[in-house]
Design goal:
This protein is α/β, with parallel strands linked by helices. Helix content is 48%, strand content 11%. The chain has a single domain, classed as Rossmann fold, CATH 3.40.50. It has a five-stranded parallel β-sheet, sandwiched between helices. Strand 3, helix 10 and strand 4 form a beta-alpha-beta unit. Helix 6 runs parallel beside helix 9 and helix 9 runs parallel beside helix 10. The chain starts with a helix and ends with a helix.
């Protein structure tokens, strides 16, 4: 059981290289992005080492993204310029097919990016780590009639890989990323529902070495959600703060 067996079942993966576009630094420093770039949580996430926040959740109301997709593309391209950095990225907004099986598409896409340029031995160990979580959770939940004595390994693998969309798939992805053991890893995921953003934040904070994770969603975290290592910037709240600050500054100058 290894990467060859797993990779041919990653049917929902999409080519994310064509989804990212270069965006000049000065645009990301413009007023459109101030609700992000002028926020202290963003600064701490961007420069965090050691105990600082590792996951940043950007939340914007529908129907506009208020610069989050451009910011994600900018960070992806900036991170790629560092020779020692690895970047995993997924842009849901530009991939209509992802709306059907979003969690599966996201996971398959990031897995393929993860093993790129790795040895077969390392890819096999990543596949085993991923499948161990899926198989363990699957056999905990499945009914005995799901299997027959004549089920082949391929039959069992297909059933495991066709689990319903759930947090289990993200948990398995996090275990695969830990197995990869990558230092200076960035994970950028744009425009996912609140429940998927929560699953990502919850499990990516358990990955070691700890990656830098940026997640954007049209929904903020639910009230009372407190994940170690995560900070959230909400457009409405932060925008209001910026306007109040600007008004006081203008008043003081006058």
């Amino acid at each position: 059981m290894g990467w060859d067996m797993l990779s041919k079942r990653l049917l929902y993966a999409v080519d994310e290289e064509k989804q990212t576009s270069l965006i000049a630094d000065h645009y990301c420093n413009g007023p459109k992005f101030h609700w992000i770039t002028k926020n202290i949580d963003f600064e701490q996430w961007k420069s965090a080492t050691g105990p600082g926040p590792s996951v940043l959740w950007l939340s914007t109301p529908v129907p506009y993204d208020h610069g989050t997709t451009d910011m994600c593309a900018h960070i992806v391209n900036s991170a790629k310029q560092g020779a020692s950095k690895t970047v995993l990225h997924f842009f849901r907004s530009s991939e209509p097919a992802a709306k059907c099986r979003l969690v599966t598409t996201l996971t398959h896409t990031l897995l393929l990016q993860l093993v790129r340029n790795m040895s077969k031995e390392k890819a096999d160990s990543i596949a085993v780590s991923f499948l161990k979580v899926l198989a363990g959770r699957f056999f905990e939940r499945c009914d005995t009639w799901d299997f027959r004595v004549d089920n082949s390994p391929d039959d069992i693998m297909n059933k495991i890989m066709n689990l319903p969309e759930s947090e289990i798939i993200i948990e398995a992805l996090a275990q695969a990323i830990t197995e990869a053991g990558i230092h200076e890893l960035f994970i950028i995921v744009d425009d996912v529902p609140g429940n998927v953003a929560f699953w990502l934040a919850k499990h990516m904070t358990d990955v070691r070495p700890e990656p830098k994770v940026l997640i954007t969603s049209r929904e903020p975290p639910s009230d009372g959600v407190n994940i170690r290592g995560m900070v959230c910037i909400e457009y409405n709240k932060e925008r209001l703060g910026l306007y109040i600050s600007a008004s006081f500054s203008a008043l003081y100058r006058s």
